[in-house]
User: What shape does this take?
Amino acid sequence: MTEHIYTFGHAITRRPATSIVDGLRAEDIGHPDLEQMLQDHAAYVSTLKSTGATVVELPPLDEFPDAVFIEDTALCLPQGAILMRPGAPSRLGEVDEIESALRTQFDIIRQIQGPGFIEGGDILVTDREILVGRSARTDAAGVAELESIVADWGHTLREVYTPQGVLHFKTDCSLLDAETVLSTRRLDASGCFEGYRVLCTASGEEAAANAIRFNGIVIMPAGFPRTAEMLANADYDLVEINNSECAKLDGGMSCLSLRF
Ligand code: CIR
Assistant: This one.
């Protein structure tokens, strides 16, 4: 396969802990069931592995209920890894926990020092640029600090906006290939994807937008048949994974791994 930003040899995941019932959520629609989440997580890990990637599986962290959503703690780029500074106070300590795992994989590690905040869920990396959505978790100072780091590595960063009331930028979009993104209509309406081919989630299926392109496959949450059909018709090789439990905590396919 040609090398693209979605060509990955590695991923890091973290198993959900029993404390997952205390995870952050915008709206309480019931406690996640740990057993079901563990099953879904195992299916996710084996799907990543099925593409030939090596997957590091980190142990649960009971003191950090949201630590399974590991994507928010770092940004991994071909030149090195950058430790984030989560805007959710209860998640700040997750960064120290991921640092040691990243040190075994990356020679170069930089860190967002603050005072700004930024979470990985707000960052979409495409072949041509890094899009960062300001949100309730990612502020202008966090974006500016990331920009100064990635500029040294030759990346262009573009600041965009996460729709009001949406947790992260990537809650509402994913990269499908070098030219194409999957987006909700509300996010696409902001104009942030001008120059890309945009496929929009079916109405009522907005939660399907948090998918990931991982090597040859697109991993998406199960239960969104019209969006899945559209993607299959567009010739993407889909794997659907149950996301009922992570969805109770506003999490989805991208949040569950760091990919590099
Ligand atoms: C949180 O509110 O931080 C977690 N419950 C969900 C994080 C989801 N992460 C992501 O979309 N990258």
The chain is about 20% helix and 25% strand.
